[in-house]
Amino acid sequence: MDSGQPNLEAFLAEADKALGSGGVNRSEETLRRYGENTLPGGDRLPAAVVYPGSTADVQAIVRAANVHRVPLYPISTGNNIGLGSRSSNATGQVVVDLGRRMNRILEIDETLAYAVVEPGVSYQAMYDELVRRGNRLMLDVTSGPPQGGMLGNALDKGAGYTPYFDHFGFACGMEVVLPTGEILRTGDGALDSTDISNWHTSKYSFGPILDGLFAQSNYGIVTRMGIWLLPRPPAIRSFHFAYDNDDDLEEIIDLCRPLKLSNFVPTLFRVTNDLYLCGSEGESAEYRTSAGRRSISDEGRRALREKHGVGAWTVSGAFYGASDAAIEPMIQRVRSHFGQSGKARYISHEEATEIAPLQVAINAFSGVPSLGELGLLKWRPGGGNSWFLPGTPMVGKVANDFQRLCRGIYEEHGLDYTVMNVCAARFCRGLHVLSFNREDEEERERAGSCYRKMAEEVARRGVFVGRSPVDFQEFHMSQTIPSFRGACASIKQALDPNGILAPGRYGIHAG
């Protein structure tokens, strides 16, 4: 939208009046900062940024946007690095930064182990508060930025590594401002009462479960969410196994599966390749020799593994228990399990604390926010970073076939195959990192082409992505069946008849 259009000016005047001093920002520096991202498609400058301080403020902004037909793009903390950061899906939208002023922990119930948060509450802020209260409860963290928003990550189907890894699944009870400006409360919050006991403890209340409508959609602005917490165990012990060969992934997946199907191992497994672990420790030693046009050599990868003490694949998990001694028999059982073929080299918890990339895994299993994996932004100069997030069934041969496929596509595009498979019982998500020089136009184009080809090839084999960078949301929606697209469009039309809330986000448009 042209920032000089009268309807935008009228909207911003109304927003300024509703929000008070500092509630609207249109400075060139601010617009540039909110428009930038790490993706190959380029930055997307907003028309303005507004900073609500309450649910009532959000209602006022949404109602004004309806009157003046101004598109809004809500964000929480804007730390969705590799998927879009603060950048909207289209230029000229007005970014609604919910995290700047709506950053309160509204409640922590230590008896029932849950918290209630506004969009601006980060993993670091929640961790710090739990420590202040005695560290009796533990949150599930991502291995991304500690300043990432808990609410925003859950709504984008983000995940962690502890038994509470499913952030949307372990959320309970929302307050939502609909595109009309009305307030919706989900779950027990829908009860017509001012005193609701089970809003953030009971997920399955009377009537349709509407919470899912607001995950990866543009159907409403969530201003409050309950998040379940885990009692912190007295002892946490990690275990790690290093494998030497790329094709060992088949054995690894088949060994992880029964341990998760039985829930013997309570955490998810991090099955991480060498570049995912070592790439956070500095720039590729080979990048400048080919000007970024070739993938790192096998010799270069081996040198990194030897330097950091990891494998072509490194498996990480953890046990919780009453004491280290109580956990030790479980460690011995898992060592025996992974030691069957003789391929795995065991790395103890104590050894892992001395290996920086494995300390990141220990932090994740312990609910401690960490900056470690942000080092992947420096693997190639120029700060380019995009995530490709498909999932595969927990069948070793299938996972290995996908590993070979994607590794080949990376190499075809002169990029470095960088991936962590996060493994549950039946499904693993492949966190593929595309690192590239965003200041090099040709390399940017290769990164975008690499992403698209992988997405096309895995879809041909019946695999879809779980999350998407803003560059590719329209593309991924086009991969769905017509009835799915039609249903999304019909819901959008019903809830947002004026199309003011993030039009096109996740590829959803009014029907």
UniProtKB/TrEMBL annotation:
<dbReference type="InterPro" id="IPR016167">
    <property type="entry name" value="FAD-bd_PCMH_sub1"/>
</dbReference>
<dbReference type="InterPro" id="IPR016164">
    <property type="entry name" value="FAD-linked_Oxase-like_C"/>
</dbReference>
<dbReference type="GO" id="GO:1903457">
    <property type="term" value="P:lactate catabolic process"/>
</dbReference>
<dbReference type="InterPro" id="IPR016166">
    <property type="entry name" value="FAD-bd_PCMH"/>
</dbReference>
<protein>
    <submittedName>
        <fullName>FAD-binding oxidoreductase</fullName>
    </submittedName>
</protein>
<dbReference type="InterPro" id="IPR016169">
    <property type="entry name" value="FAD-bd_PCMH_sub2"/>
</dbReference>
<dbReference type="GO" id="GO:0071949">
    <property type="term" value="F:FAD binding"/>
</dbReference>
<dbReference type="Pfam" id="PF01565">
    <property type="entry name" value="FAD_binding_4"/>
</dbReference>
<dbReference type="InterPro" id="IPR016171">
    <property type="entry name" value="Vanillyl_alc_oxidase_C-sub2"/>
</dbReference>
<feature type="domain" description="FAD-binding PCMH-type">
    <location>
        <begin position="42"/>
        <end position="232"/>
    </location>
</feature>
<dbReference type="InterPro" id="IPR036318">
    <property type="entry name" value="FAD-bd_PCMH-like_sf"/>
</dbReference>
<dbReference type="GO" id="GO:0004458">
    <property type="term" value="F:D-lactate dehydrogenase (cytochrome) activity"/>
</dbReference>
<keyword id="KW-0285">Flavoprotein</keyword>
<keyword id="KW-0274">FAD</keyword>
<dbReference type="InterPro" id="IPR016170">
    <property type="entry name" value="Cytok_DH_C_sf"/>
</dbReference>
<dbReference type="InterPro" id="IPR006094">
    <property type="entry name" value="Oxid_FAD_bind_N"/>
</dbReference>
<dbReference type="GO" id="GO:0008720">
    <property type="term" value="F:D-lactate dehydrogenase (NAD+) activity"/>
</dbReference>
